[in-house]
Amino acid sequence: MKLAFHLMAKPIGPVCNLGCEYCFYLEKKAMFPRGEDYRMSDDVLEAYIKQITEAHSDIPELIFAWQGGEPTLMGIDFFEKAIELERKYAAGKPFMNTLQTNGTLLDDEWCRFLAKNKFLVGLSLDGPRELHDRHRKTRSGEPTFDEVMRGLELLKKHCVDFNILACINRETAKQPLEVYRFFKDQDADYIQFIPIVERMPEDRARELDLQLGVPAPIGEETGPVEITPWTVEPEMYGDFLITVFDEWVRSDVGTVFIMNFEWALISYIGAETPPCFFAPTCGNAAIIEHNGDVYSCDHYVYPGYRLGNILTDNLAVMMDSEAQRSFGAQKEKLPRYCHDCPVLHACYGECPKHRFVESPDGEPGWNYLCAGYRKYFSHIAPYMKVITDLLTQGRPASEIMEKTIVIVPRKDDQRYR
Q1: Kind of pairing, strands 306-309 and 285-288?
Q2: Annotated catalytic residue, options 252, 298, 313, 320
Q3: CB atoms within 10 A of CB 226
Q4: Is 293 a catalytic residue?
C-alpha cells in the first residue's frame, strides 16, 4: 500500500482580509518576492490535484483541504475549476473538500456553492463578541464578530456542513462555560478547541531567516523563550478543557461533538488518534503554498523545511523522502520526564512546535502545555473508561449521562494513575 498523507493547500498563501493578532501565518509574506500576487496558478492547481489523486490510489476517498490566509479571496471561479479537476482525476472515486475560513466574505452565492459541492467548512470563531473581538480584527483594528456571525447564519441557512474552530488564548481560557454555551446556542454540533501558543522571534532568527522566527531543532531549545501576551497559560488551558468536559459529559454526549474529547477517547481505546500532534510520530501532514512549494508542516514553513516544488518534484517522493521521514521521527524525542508520564499514550509530547521549555528536571524539549494536558487527561480518564466499556457492550456513549454517582478511577486501572 502506498504511503497515506494529508496535504493542505494554501491557494492564496498568507494573504488575508483580516489582521488577527495571533495569526502565525501573516509573517510568511517575507518568504516571497516583492510584488508576488499570491494566487495559485492553474498549473499548480492541476499538479496538486493530479498528484494527490495518483499518490492515493489505494485510499477509498480523496480529501482536498483548503486553507490560508483566507482562501475565499480566490473567488468561487477558482474552486469551481478545482472541482472540475477533482472529478477528472478522481475518475469516479469519492472525494471531499474542506475549507477553513474566517467567514467574513461568505454570502449567499458562496454558501450555495459550498452546499452544492458538499464542502465541510471550518469556521474560525473564538466565542462571544467580547472574546472574539479581542484579537480577531480587521487590518485597521475594527472588530469582526458581526461579520463572522453573519457568515455563520448563511452557512446554516444553506445547510452547509460546518464545524467551529475556536482559538483558546489567555483571556478566552478564563471563561470556559461562557464559550461552550455560546457555541451550543449557535447550534454548533462540532467544535475544536485550539490552544494559542506563540513565541516571539529571537533577534538572531530575524537576522538569519527573512525576519521569521525559526524554531530550533526539536529538543534542542536553549535559554529562555519569550511568549506573546495572548499565549494561553498551560494549567489554565487544562482547566478550560476540564470545565467544558464536565458539562459536556453530564449533558451533551451524543449531541455535541468536541474533537478534543473524541481524540482522547480514541487514544484511550488504544487506536492512533487522527491529529498528528497526538500521534507518536508526525510527518504525514504537509502543506503546499500557492507557488507549488511543499513544506514538512503548516507550522514549519521555513526555508529549512522545504521539500520541493510540485511542478518539478513528485509529491509522493517528497513525502517519503529521508528529509520528511527524519522530520516526522524527531517527534519521538522526548525528555525523560515524558517517558515516566502516566498520560503519555494520550499526548506523546503533543506538537513539537510547543516543545520549547525545560522539564522539571532541567531537560530541554519539554512541551509548554504539559501541565495542562497532564491535568486534563488525568481528569477525564475514568469517564473515558466508562464510555469505552459502554461502546464495547454495544451501548451508546450517551448512557454515561444517566449515571448519578461520581465516577472515580478503578484501582486496577494503571494507565492514568
Answers
A1: unpaired
A2: 298
A3: 9
A4: no
